[in-house]
Fold:
Amino acid sequence: MARGARYRVPFRRRREGLTNYYKRRKMLLSGKPRLVVRKTLNHMIAQIAVAKPEGDEIVVMVHSNELRRDYGWLGDTNNIPAAYLVGLLVGLKALKAGIKEAIPDIGLHRAIPKTRVFSALKGAIDAGLKVPCDPSMFPPEDRIRGEHIASYAKALEANEPEVYLRRFSGYLKRGLDPKVLPEHFEKIKNLILARFNRA
Structure:
């Protein structure tokens, strides 16, 4: 452990690897709401947070379970298509709440291009929310629609049917053929837009 007269013990949340206070200070100095995107093993979460002296105020929040509960999403809740839909939904809710722009807050996630985090940011931008982000970080449209998943399922079913049944058991149990995931994605996307009069 470090010692010495000039050593300063880091804040608890920094020691626990939960908060980067240097990044957080820069975001708070902007004075703008933050589009907070977090991923877990099974879910995606997006929030619009406004910093207050007593702590962050969450104005809008979307959990990927909401896609399944309110819109009939049958795919996984932690993949790139689900992340995009979560971002789209949080963007539409933010606009309805009167928030027109936000800065991205991806926390301690590494800024790896074309991942779930940036798929969610793309969804929020497509909803009409102004979020500064380099477009080269976004996944391509075919991955956002889940075409890579559908192609993989098709190849796996043809070559290794037993592995296909095991790998996509969750999809099949929920009643979704993974080979038609792009069409299902478009259906859910249009349903979300229609509920916010954006069809």
Notes: Residues 17-195 form a domain with the Nucleotidyltransferase; domain 5 fold (CATH 3.30.420.100). The chain has one domain: 17-195. DSSP finds ten helices and four strands in the chain. The chain has a mean pLDDT of 90.
